[in-house]
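User: I'm putting together notes for a lab meeting next week and I want to include a structural view of one of the chains we've been expressing. I don't have a solved structure, so I'd like a prediction I can at least talk through. The sequence is below, exactly as it appears in our construct file.
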Amino acid sequence: MSKKLRVFVTGATGWIGTALVRELRAAGHQVLGMARNDAGVDRLKAQGVEVYRADLREPERLVEAVRSTDATIHLAFHMDFADWEGINRIDREAIACMLGALEGTGKTFIGTSGTLLLASPGTIALETDAAMATGPIVLRARAERLVLDAVKRGVHGGVVRLAPTVHGAGDKGFIAMLIEIARSRRVAGYLGDGATHWPAVHRDDAARLYRLALESMSCGNCLHGVAEQGISQRAIAEVIGEQLGVPVESIPADQAAEHFGFMAMVVGLDNRVSSRSTRELCAWTPEGPGLLDDMRAHYF
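Assistant: Thanks for the context. Below is the predicted structure for the 300-residue chain, given as structure tokens.
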């Protein structure tokens, strides 16, 4: 795609957003980056990025940005796990407002979801699979559905489902949280027999996927930001134990909440995921290091 776009990026100062802004600009696209505080404004300005001051809690502020750009990539999410229902409601209201402003325009909106919505023991999830119907994580599926339903109303929309660990130097996500739990408890734990799996993708590969999706996505697709199909929780715990010098032990299911805290909600999910269709559709080939090697190199 030779056309250069002006792209509104929510979450432009976040973990993936920072890499995405860099990726888009390197490809010649212009970026309007959302920042919700002075520190975010300063970070974007230091990169030479045009700034739009807004917050998901004021969704009407997003309308001007999506109308004034060629495409929107939505990454922002308030990470407050103490109010899981509330932060998901804020996200859905912001998405609905942005999509409403784009109806009938044919402009692109790429939303963000997670592959954990497809967690199912013993299966390999595909891009065409629908989100699971039960469990606390399922609240995220409602946001995904908003985007896919908007395609019927003239929005050129799609969703990138990200692996639960988007890894790289500086990551503060699930893997970093598991490491901190192991540090504080002096044991690297895995739930049960440790045979549940998470897929993984390097941050730079995820950023490139969003850019390729922007340039090539057909309406209504779910794409999988997955480089490694599934890494066992036991393998992750073994690297943590090896690097911290602490024992690696099984945590019984009835002790999961006490040991893992809110992470108990996700460590027991078996989430093996294919990205074959995504790679074919977007001509995407992940190039970054695998999760376990990246952990050894950058997480301790």
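A couple of points you could mention at the meeting. The two ends are 40 Å apart (CA to CA). Residues 239 and 293 are 9 Å apart (CA to CA).

User: Perfect, that's what I needed.
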